[in-house]
Design goal:
heterodimer, A: about 120 residues, mainly beta, 11 strands, about 0% helix, about 50% strand, B: about 110 residues, six-stranded mixed β-sheet, about 55% strand
Chain lengths: ~120, ~110
C-alpha cells in the first residue's frame, strides 16, 4: 500500500501526558499537512510542510502542539501536557502541487482520547 | 465569520432525488476550490474540483461564483451510496498557504 500511513491509529492517554503521532506521506509528495477533526466538524488546518520546511504554523492550537519533518519525508506531531479538549482525530495529508490538481491524500487518522 | 461556511444539514432525501449543497467563503483572494466526500469514520477523499466555468462528473455538478464567493454541488438521481458528508474546501494563499475545510453537510439517501 503506497498511500499515506499514520501511526498509531488509536491512542488513549491520561491528561498531562505527552503524545506523538507519526505520518508517512506518499513517497513522491513534497507537501505534508496536519489537520484535527472533531465530531461533526470538518478537518481543521493545523500546519503544513514543503519538504522539510514548516511554512505555516500559525494555526497550531497552542504552544503545546509542535510538528517536525526533519528529512522531508515522514512527519511527527507532538502534543505536550495533553488536555481533555485535545481528544480528536488527527489527520495527515500529502500532496504534490506540481501536478496542479490541488488534491490532498489523507491517511486514516490517529484518534486521540485523553482521559 | 467562518472562513468556509456550509449548509448545516443533515439532508434526508429519497433515492432518485436531486440535492444541492451550498458553500460560501470569506477570503476573496482564495484561488482554488474543491468538494471532498467523507464517509463515516473514514478519511476525506476528493470528489471534484470546482471551476468558474462549472464542471460535471456524471451525476455531480459543481459550480463556482467568484463574485458572490459561493460554491455549489448538485447531485442528481441520488443513490444510497451517496450517503456521506460533503466537505467544501478552499485554498488560500494570503498570509501563507492554507487549505480550509468547511464543517461539512451530511447527506442521508433513503430507499
Amino acid at each position: 500500500d503506497t498511500g499515506v500511513s499514520q501511526d498509531p491509529r488509536h491512542k488513549i492517554t491520561k491528561r498531562g501526558q505527552n503524545v506523538t503521532f507519526r505520518c508517512d506521506p506518499i513517497s513522491e509528495h513534497n507537501r505534508l499537512y496536519w489537520y484535527r477533526q472533531t465530531l461533526g466538524q470538518g478537518p481543521e488546518f493545523l500546519t503544513y510542510f514543503q519538504n522539510e520546511a514548516q511554512l505555516e504554523k500559525s494555526r497550531l492550537l497552542s504552544d503545546r502542539f509542535s510538528a517536525e519533518r526533519p528529512k522531508g519525508s515522514f512527519s511527527t506531531l507532538e502534543i505536550q501536557r495533553t488536555e481533555q479538549g485535545d481528544s480528536a482525530m488527527y489527520l495527515c495529508a500529502s500532496s504534490l502541487p506540481e501536478k496542479n490538481t490541488g488534491e490532498l491524500f489523507f491517511g486514516e487518522g490517529s484518534r486521540l482520547t485523553v482521559l | 465569520r467562518k472562513e468556509v461556511e456550509q449548509d448545516p444539514g443533515p439532508f434526508n432525501v429519497p433515492e432518485g432525488a436531486t440535492v444541492a449543497f451550498n458553500c460560501t467563503y470569506s477570503n476573496s483572494a482564495s484561488q482554488s476550490f474543491f468538494w471532498y466526500r467523507q464517509d463515516c469514520r473514514k478519511e476525506p477523499k476528493l470528489l471534484m474540483s470546482v471551476y468558474s466555468s462549472g464542471n460535471e462528473d456524471g451525476r455531480f455538478t459543481a459550480q463556482l461564483n467568484r463574485a458572490s464567493q459561493y460554491i455549489s454541488l448538485l447531485i442528481r438521481d441520488s443513490k444510497l451510496s451517496d450517503s456521506a458528508t460533503y466537505l467544501c474546501v478552499v485554498n488560500s494563499y494570503t498570509g501563507g498557504f492554507k487549505t480550509i475545510f468547511g464543517a461539512g453537510t451530511r447527506l442521508f439517501v433513503k430507499a
